Amino acid sequence: MSLDYSRVEKRDVITYSEGAFFENPVFYSSFITRVPADPSLPGIPGYIESIDARPRNTASLDTSGIDVGFDLKLPQTSIGRFGIGFSGTYVIEYKTGGGGSFVDGVGKFSNDQVVQRWRHLATVNYDQGPWAATLTQTFYLGYRDQNPLPNGQPRRVGSYELWDLTGSWAASKQLKFRLGVKNLFDRNPPVSNQIYSFLAGYDPNYTDPRGRLFFGSVSYSFK
Prior knowledge:
Blueprint: E1 2-15, H1 18-23, E2 32-34, E3 48-51, E4 56-73, E5 81-98, E6 101-104, E7 109-110, E8 113-114, E9 118-128, E10 131-140, E11 143-144, E12 156-157, E13 160-170, E14 175-182, E15 213-220
Antiparallel strand pairs: 1-4, 2-3, 4-5, 5-6, 5-9, 7-8, 9-10, 10-13, 11-12, 13-14, 14-15
């Protein structure tokens, strides 16, 4: 079993995303050009005319999280041997900005990426003589989408999980056959209204749109 805590503080991070300027307009005000404010509307700045979004080393990043994992091998039985594996990451904070003004991007689409609060990989293994099988679950917790709903309320992107199943048979010490199914339940990526990727309707940075896939392989080792 393992339990780790990490904290990273980075300075002079390159900023190139227009989203960073809108999420933290005070810190990036020197790069935002506005029209003169309307005197009849005190306290309200003029609308944005342009943004100089050329890459610059102006940002900071503070992030911390906890990693947990375990690998359990059960005793051999008459029907075979089972094992359970698990590794997960919980992100406590992921703050970007600078000058004392930070925006926490955990659990939401921030700048040009998603930082899930929680993600994990879980496996169940089985073997009996020349036979072996593995069932794997990949899970990402849902988050707040990049753009709100038409009524202005935040939009949630659902959690995403994939199940994969593989099996193998060792005909000999050299010859091995392997079959498997990826995305066992034919899960579609959750709908997202993000606009940073050329693929509209979902976020391809961590999802797989291909649906259920079958695969097989034959390997021979010359020893």
